[in-house]
TrEMBL record:
Top-level taxonomy: Eukaryota, Fungi, Dikarya, Basidiomycota, Agaricomycotina
Membrane topology according to the record: Multi-pass membrane protein
Localization, UniProt: Endomembrane system
Pfam families assigned to the protein according to its UniProt record, in alphabetical order: Na_Ca_ex (PF01699)
Keyword Transport: yes
A single BP term in Gene Ontology: intracellular calcium ion homeostasis
Protein name: Transporter
InterPro entries the UniProt entry points to: CaH_exchang, NaCa_Exmemb
Main location (coarse class): membrane
Top-rank taxon: Eukaryota
């Protein structure tokens, strides 16, 4: 039996090891951590000195800090996922599925935190727009950019056939669940005005009987029941993917991939294998290998994520506070702010990284000279061939961007949108029920229409488990169309009245809420 002194000794060893891990992480990522610290310091200073910086600068600095925090979550999720893949007695495919679930959850961390803060601050109209914006971003822009980027070098890319077919069903049921309350409200009888209603609400007469606390109560009950069903569907789908026989399908997918994708995957696997051989340790089950070859204990990454959660929560609250002020003093529509700007925080870091790395790769490809390898005619021919071969290799490596040639181009953003639809959205409705916030699934007609269109487009693009450059450009173009229309869209006043918080619908109509009359008055 272990003595207390033994436990203290083990705790001391673990603490020293964790501190050593943090020193190693700082040594390898010091520049990123330095930029993150500076951005967080500026964002927090701007919030507490808003009269000096202004709300616009505060929003920008908080937005920038959230971008760097998102990268920290992505990094921590990948490292913890490496532990899951290495350890355990379950099948490798099952461990890989658990890793994917962890990485997807970390990818949704920023959006989920923003959504929860908006819920507790009663910014429900902005919350609904942000939910739709997150789904559109991960359904259209991110996978479309990945398909277009990889399509510049390959004719087509392969997706996992089983995962693609399942994603079609899950994505469609999530969108249809949002459409059900909307169809319910649209189908209600718009008869004569009931007694007690009047024209002072600013709404058309046919709408007055529908915009009431009684109708909102029915929609809330309906939304809560649908939310429970969505959670059951998501849990069942994860259980199926975790226990399903995906090994053979994964092998078939690997065999069917294009030559470029196969070569890229082979190179990555060889590099990982060499790194693992050079850094093999007896306690490999409790450590993960990062790209620098250093081994860290899993508790190091958990502690890093805990710190990131605390920083992100405070920064997200500051971001939402500045958002309220910006919407009050500017003419920016709430729809555009929620549909486009707020969700973009999760893609900004990867987007900037892709642009920078691609620009550097193109510059090296165009300007880096080839080394001559010949001294005579015979050797000159061989040398020129080697030069051409080296140039082809540089051309190939120019597109070897891990951000867009691996998980991004193989459907992970669609998995992220599925989790947000089937898991986080119903959880927000249930959280609102628990904390007495009237959050429901009756969304704006424009938002539901765009979401249905995006879902159909994604299903058409991925129905054959293949994608190409043209399909990626189509997805990007549709997202640009939605962003253009949202810039001038004032919002649906009836939905805004139903989301009035904490007042009743009648009080909201009498006093006027954001979206019911303020936005319409601008036109």
């Amino acid at each position: 039996m272990a003595q207390p002194s033994d436990w203290l000794g083990m705790a001391g060893d673990r603490l020293r090891s964790t501190l050593a891990d943090f020193r190693n992480i700082w040594g390898h990522y010091w520049f990123y951590l330095f930029v993150l610290t500076i951005s967080l310091g500026l964002a927090w200073s701007a919030h507490f000195n808003v009269e000096v910086f202004g709300h616009g600068a505060t929003f920008f600095l908080c937005f920038l800090a959230m971008v760097f925090l998102q990268k920290m979550f992505d990094w921590g999720g990948e490292k913890l996922g490496a532990h899951i893949v290495q350890g355990g007695k379950s099948k490798s495919e099952q461990r890989k599925d658990l890793k994917d679930l962890l990485v997807i959850t970390m990818s949704n961390a920023i959006e989920a935190t923003l959504a929860i803060i908006l819920l507790f601050k009663c910014q429900l109209r902005l919350l609904q727009s942000t939910i739709i914006g997150v789904l559109l971003l991960h359904m259209l822009l991110i996978p479309g950019t990945a398909f277009f980027y990889q399509g510049l070098h390959t004719y087509e890319q392969k997706l996992h056939p089983l995962h693609s077919s399942l994603n079609h069903s899950l994505l469609m049921i999530g969108v249809l669940a949002i459409a059900v309350p909307t169809a319910f409200f649209a189908a209600l009888d718009r008869g004569t005005i009931v007694s007690g209603s009047n024209s002072e609400s600013g709404l058309p007469g046919a709408f007055v009987p529908l915009v009431s606390d009684g109708v909102r109560r029915d929609i809330l009950r309906m939304s809560r029941g649908i939310s429970v069903v969505l959670l059951v569907i998501y849990i069942a789908s994860r259980v199926w993917r975790h226990s399903g026989p995906l090994g053979d399908s994964a092998d078939e997918e690997s065999d069917d991939n294009s030559e470029f994708d196969s070569q890229l995957r082979c190179n990555c696997q060889c590099n990982r294998r060499n790194t693992a051989q050079e850094n093999q340790q007896p306690n490999a089950r409790n450590t993960a290998t990062n790209e620098d070859g250093d081994l860290h204990h899993w508790s190091t990454y958990i502690l890093t994520l805990v710190i990131a959660v605390g920083l992100m929560g405070a920064t997200a609250e500051f971001l939402v506070s500045s958002t309220e002020a910006i919407l009050t003093v500017t003419s920016i529509q709430t729809e555009w702010f929620g549909l486009i700007l707020l969700p973009f925080v999760s893609f900004s870091a990867d987007g900037v990284n892709v642009v920078v790395e691609t620009s550097v790769a193109i510059f090296k490809y165009c300007w880096e000279p080839t080394e001559p390898n010949s001294t005579n005619n015979a050797q000159g021919t061989i040398g020129s061939e080697n030069g051409i071969s080296q140039r082809k290799k540089r051309k190939f490596s120019m597109w070897d961007n891990p951000l867009l040639t691996s998980e991004f181009a193989h459907g992970r953003p669609i998995d992220v949108s599925i989790q947000f639809t089937l898991c986080w959205t119903p959880l927000l409705v249930l959280f609102g029920w628990w904390f007495d916030k009237p959050m429901h699934l009756l969304f704006d007609y424009f938002e539901v229409g765009m979401l249905l269109g995006a879902c159909l487009l994604v299903n058409y693009v991925t129905i054959d488990a293949k994608t190409n450059l043209s399909e990626g450009l189509t997805m990007i173009s549709f997202y640009v169309m939605i962003a253009t229309a949202a810039w001038w869209y004032p919002g649906q006043p009836q939905v805004a009245d139903f989301l009035s918080c904490p007042s009743s619908v009648a009080s909201a109509i009498a006093n006027g809420v954001e979206g019911s009359g303020n936005n319409l008055a601008r036109f």
